Structure formats: C-alpha cells, structure tokens
Amino acid sequence: MNRDALRQIVWQPEESAKLDFKIEFYKVYEPKPTTQPEIQKWEKAKEQQWAELVKDIIALANGNFGTATQEGYLVVGAGDKLKADGTPTLRAVETTLLTRKEVLEKVHSYCQPRLLDLKCEMFVVDGVNLLVISIPPSPYLYRLSKQLKTPKKEFSPHTVLIRRHDGEEIYEASPIEQKTIEQEKQAAFNLSITDERSPLTQGELTLEECDLLHYAQETKELKLLENQAGNYVKTGNRSFKHWEDQEKRIKYLDALDSLEKKELVKHEGGTLYRLTFKGFEAISRISQKH
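RESULT FIELD:
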C-alpha cells in the first residue's frame, strides 16, 4: 500500500472480503478513570474494543473464497460511502500509539494459528492522517482460540470469521465454506517458493512444512521427540503428535526431514533442530507470496 493507492481507494470506497473501512479509531486508548467501579467498566470496554479490532483483522486474514492470494486492508479514518458532493468522508486518526507488536500480541491471544505478519502504517491523504493495517495472504485458515466478546456480539472458540464479498458483514463460516477457503489457501501456497529472483530452496513446500516453519518463528527451533506411542515433532508449545491420525503425524515427521534436506533447518544433534538463514528467508517469502 502506498499513498496514491490509498487515495484511490478512499475516493472510490468499495468494501470487499479483503477491504474494510472504519471512520473512527477503536477506543482502546481511552483515559483511565480514578474510581474502582469506573475502572472495572473501563477495563471491560477496553477489552471489547480490542476484541472488535481483532475480529476485523481475523476476518480480513480469512477473507472468503476466491481471495487466497490477496492482501487484506483495514483503513481507519475513512468512511465506506462518499459524501453528497462526491468527496470521501475522512476523519483524522490522531493516535500514533498503535504498534505492530501490540496488535499482533492481541490477535495471537485470540486466534490459532498465529498470524504470519501485519503492518501498521500512517498515511496523509488530502491533509488527513489515516491508519492502514495490512494483512498479507497466508496458507492458513484462522480460528478463534477462545471466546471473543465485542461490544455488539460474542463469538465462541473455534469459530472461523469471514467477510461477505461486498464487505457488508462479518459472519461465522459454515463447514463447507471453511473447507473451500482452506483448500484454496493450501492450493495457493503449496507451490515452489523458489523462483528466478530468489533461489532459497529446491522443490516445493508442503502445508506441513509451512506449519513447522510458521510455529518455529519465535523459538527458532524444533525438536524430534519420542514416547511410548512413537516419534513426533514439537516446536515451542506446539506438538504435532496426532495420535488419532497416524498418517498426519508421519507427514510432519517427513516434513522435518524434508526441511533439513532443503537446508531450512539444521540438525544440531540429539533432538534439536534449528532454523537456518534459508529457513528465515522461507518464512519471509511465505508471508509475502501473492
């Protein structure tokens, strides 16, 4: 996103499964009151405002069918309708406190898997400060990991939030919609991450390989463990045991072996594998791939 592209968008506002306009900034930085009863109300309202932002970001990350390779944009400070004179409705976003790290932490506290990345950028359009949160496409379908309570609605754990193609509604995806969107995402990203511009690896990344790289971002390591039931891969707090589905468990074991052959991870000895520089490059390419 750049300023010229943003100006075109706000002058021709048309929401979609991957574009959302908010005229007002989320009320997550309201002043803290001084009395205990008011503080409790303030804390509740603040968390619900964060939940509203999280809901909007997760829905944009999921999009809908036909949007697997598209970036999602949340434009704050611009309305989704033009004024009577044909000019955009703009309202300056004054806060500069919002950071990428803070937003990611909030989103990660509510959803699985974790978002690969997002951007928080300020732009000046026609003399007005606007905030744009950009969500890159990814191979994942994001589900709520716990209850999400916004000012108007509550969503249960495991809910998949998606957007209507006209952007008029965020709603809970049906099992068929979930399957369709997930298959599209997998198909879009189960491609070679190697091209003539960046020879990172040879071959393709499977969904299981993407999973392992994704969850290894923070700890930068993976482990090959064993118990009485068999071998399995673990990274951080995520264990790919899948005892109920042995075929799936073996796919993750094969994925770890494949990542080592592609030099995306290195076996340090014993149970420990660490991400290589090529591995970090691969993660970056996954998050940027369209």
